Amino acid sequence: MGYPFVIMTKLDRPLRIGTRGSPLALAQARETQQRLAIAHPGLQTELVVIKTTGDQILDRRLSEIGGKGLFTKELDAALADGRIDCAVHSMKDLETALPDGTVIAAHLEREDPRDAYIGRDGIAFADLPPGAVVGTASMRRQAQILSRRPDLTVIAFRGNVNTRLGKLAAGEAQATLLAMAGLRRLDMQEHATQALPPEDMLPAVAQGAIGIQARADDGVALALLSPLDHAETRIRVTAERAMLAMLDGSCRTPIAGLAEFQPDGALRLRAMIARPDGTGRLDWEGFGAPADAQALGREAGEALKARAGEDFFT
C-alpha cells in the first residue's frame, strides 16, 4: 500500500498501540510490536489496553446489545483524542464504515481463516446425536450449523477462547466453534477437533486478518505502519468487506465470505447469506482480477441482495 508522499519525522516517544485486553487481542498486539521492531530496529512501542463494552457484556449475543461496534468504539475514541497512535483489530470485528479521519494503515498477513470445530471428548460433528447442544454466539455459525444439521440445538456461547473452552469442558454444550486463527495465535490449536473446510462452514468476512487503524493525518504513524501491510491479505479483505458493505451486514444477519487467490492469479470470492435458523440459504461465487477486488465484492453483495429480496434481512 504505502504512503509515498509522507515525510517521515522522528518519534521522540514510544508508539502507543491500542488494544483490547483479551489474551487473543494482546497476542495480536504483540505480533504487531514484533513486526514493527523488525521493520524499524530501535523503535520503542507501548501497549495501551482499553476495555471495550463488548468485553464487559458476556451474557448476550452481540446482535442483542449493539453489534460489532461494541468491540471498537472505545478504541476509536482513544485514537480520536490522541491517547493512542494506532489500534490493532481483528478485521472481522470492524464495521464496514470506519470513523471519519481514520484508515486501516496496514493489514498483517492473514492467518488460517477457517472455523475450528471442537467436540467435547473429541466427538466429530457428524457423530453428534440428534438434539445435541452446540454453543456459539455467532449467527453465521448458527445458521450454517442448522442448515446442515437442523436436528441440533444451538445456544449462545460468549467469552474469550478460554472461557468458551471452559464452558464446553463443564458440559454446557457438546461442541463449539472458534476461529482457527485465534487458536493458532494462542498456540492452542491442539484443542481443535477439526478445521472445517469453507465448503462446510464459510468463514466470517475477514476472519483471521489483523488490521491496524490510524489517524489519516498522522504521517508518522502511517509511515511506520506502511511496511507491515501484506498486499495479498489487503486485496482479499477488500473484496470480502465490499460484499459485506453492499449487504449492509451486521451481527443480526448471518453473512459469510471468503476471497482466495487461484493458481492463475485470479481472485475467487465465495459469499453466503442465510436466515438465522438455517433456512433460505443463498450462495454466490465469482472470479475477478485482484485489482478489481472491490468491484468483485460489490457484485457479490448486489447479486445476493437482489436474490434475497427486502424481507430476507433482519
Summary tags:
314 residues, alpha/beta, D-Maltodextrin-Binding Protein, domain 2, Double Stranded RNA Binding Domain, 5-stranded mixed sheet, 13 strands, 31% helix, globular, disordered N terminus
Written description of the protein model:
- This protein has helices at residues 23-39, 53-56, 62-65, 73-80, 139-148, 161-169, 180-185, 219-225, 231-246, 293-308; strands at residues 15-19, 45-49, 86-90, 102-107, 115-119, 133-135, 153-155, 175-179, 194-196, 210-215, 255-261, 267-273, 282-288.
- With 314 residues, it is α/β, with parallel strands linked by helices.
- The protein has 3 domains: 15-108 and 209-229, D-Maltodextrin-Binding Protein, domain 2; 115-196, D-Maltodextrin-Binding Protein, domain 2 (3-Layer(aba) Sandwich), CATH 3.40.190.10; 240-305, Porphobilinogen deaminase, C-terminal domain (Double Stranded RNA Binding Domain, 2-Layer Sandwich), CATH 3.30.160.
- It has a 5-stranded mixed β-sheet with strand order 2-1-3-10-4, with helices on both faces.
Question: Layout of helices and strands, plus pairs?
Answer:
Elements: E1 15-19, H1 23-39, E2 45-49, H2 53-56, H3 62-65, H4 73-80, E3 86-90, E4 102-107, E5 115-119, E6 133-135, H5 139-148, E7 153-155, H6 161-169, E8 175-179, H7 180-185, E9 194-196, E10 210-215, H8 219-225, H9 231-246, E11 255-261, E12 267-273, E13 282-288, H10 293-308
Parallel strand pairs: 1-2, 1-3, 6-7, 6-8
Antiparallel strand pairs: 3-10, 4-10, 5-8, 5-9, 11-12, 12-13
DSSP strand content: 15-25%
**So, the CATH homologous superfamily of the largest domain?**
Periplasmic binding protein-like II
Which geometry do the CA atoms define? globular
Oligomeric state of shown chains: single chain
Q: Any idea of the CATH topology of the largest domain?
A: D-Maltodextrin-Binding Protein, domain 2
**Strands in their spatial order, largest beta sheet:** 2-1-3-10-4
What is the average per-residue confidence, as pLDDT, rounded to a whole number? 91
Indicate the CATH class of the largest domain: Alpha Beta
Number of helices: 10
How many β-strand runs?
13
| Count of spatially separate domains | 3
The separation of the N and C termini measures: 36 Å
Alpha-carbon Rg, integer: 19 Å
* Protein structure class: alpha/beta
Outline the low-pLDDT stretches: 2-9
N-to-C series of helices and strands: EHEHHHEEEEHEHEHEEHHEEEH
| Secondary structure: helix percent | 25-40%
Instruction: Please name the CATH architecture of the largest domain.
Output: 3-Layer(aba) Sandwich
Sheet with the most strands, sense and barrel status = 5 strands, mixed
